[in-house]
Structure prediction request, 245 residues.
Amino acid sequence: MSDEFDGTTLDTGTWLPHYLPAWSSRAATRATYEVRDSCLRLSVPPEQGVWCEGDHQPPLRVSAVQSGNFSGPAGSTVGQQPYRPGLRVREAQPLFRGWLPHHGYLEMRARMVLTPRSMAAWWMVGFEDDPERCAEICVAEVFGRAVEPGASAEVGMGLHAFRDPRTPEDFAAPRLPIDVAEFHTYAVDWTPTRATFLVDGEPVRECPDPPDYPMQHMIAVFDFPDWPSDDPTTPQLVVDHLRGG
Prediction:
């Protein structure tokens, strides 16, 4: 499966343009985005509100698309990627299964416009239909404060176990000689026994024992308003394509 982001509309059979809305609401988590020039363009403009205002620390603003979503009823603790124990669903979510890969070679070609208080990422997480199927394969995570403009950036990649007892915690952010403001291809070759992470076709690191269940895509750009920065640039993540096979 692949999405080249052609045309002018998002494929809502594949993507939900919200970020973990169960813990907030659809209205408060709506992404700022457009599809043009054969790219998905996510951004966090100054007027975008804070996600889960008054609860999540640190405060964050985010525009994201995700390829799966569900929750239990409002007031329950059943939902995806809870950010603290005992978190309660604020708005019940209908079941949505868009693109949930299970192994394969997956790649995203993208560029990032970041400030010292922003970050952009593509990761996959378990759907959590079973609470232990919750681990993460992070393919690319870049904080603006770890970018040397035009020269290099720390690119986070690896596994996060969360509440999955079978997945090891194995994450690192090697510094790579790339300009993330230009297009690069971030990829993972995911098999039942290992996940190999690549940038522009070159292997960077390998993690054994990755999650072995279907996972949903999460593509997002974040702004952290409490972090110090006087850079007025609007953070963006521009995705040319996402492919899997």
